[in-house]
Amino acid sequence: MPYLSADVVYSLRCSFLHQGTPNIDTAEVTEDRCKVDKLILVIEDENEVDQSLSHVAYEKNFEIVNRELTVDIRTLCYYLKTAAKDYFEANKSLFNFFNYTLVDEREERKQLREIKEMWGLT
Question: Could you say which DSSP state residue 111 is in?
Fold first, then answer.
């Protein structure tokens, strides 16, 4: 039965990041039992148990004709976030090329507008 293996999660990560689609490249999934023909993403209620469900359909000669995997989106996002965080923590030296500053000037500009309005300068 297919399950949310590391290969499946990585394939989803790549397709989300590079194509913006939730596709699984079965050629990238090494275990035959984890290859997926159809992915069903669901949004569960926060109080529900996060789970993955799988379904396999067979022909009369017991050949697999369809492998479906149902995945809760929150679970998938958790796996992707955890893998990215773990990779970053283990490889911080690879990220030393980042040299940036994020400045949010919205509050400063809002205050400046309020001062101008107060003094009638707008």
Answer: H
Q: How far is CA 63 from CA 53, 54, 58, 67, 74, in A?
A: 20, 17, 5, 11, 33
**C-alpha gyration radius of the chain:** 23
- For residue 69, the cross-strand partners are 39, 54
Q: What is the pLDDT of residues 30-74, one digit of tens each?
A: 887 778 888 888 887 766 655 666 666 666 676 766 778 888 888
Which residue is associated with the tokens 């995997």? Answer: 69
Q: Could you tell me the pLDDT band of residue 111, with boundaries at 50, 70 and 90? A: confident
Q: Where are the domains of the chain?
A: 6-118
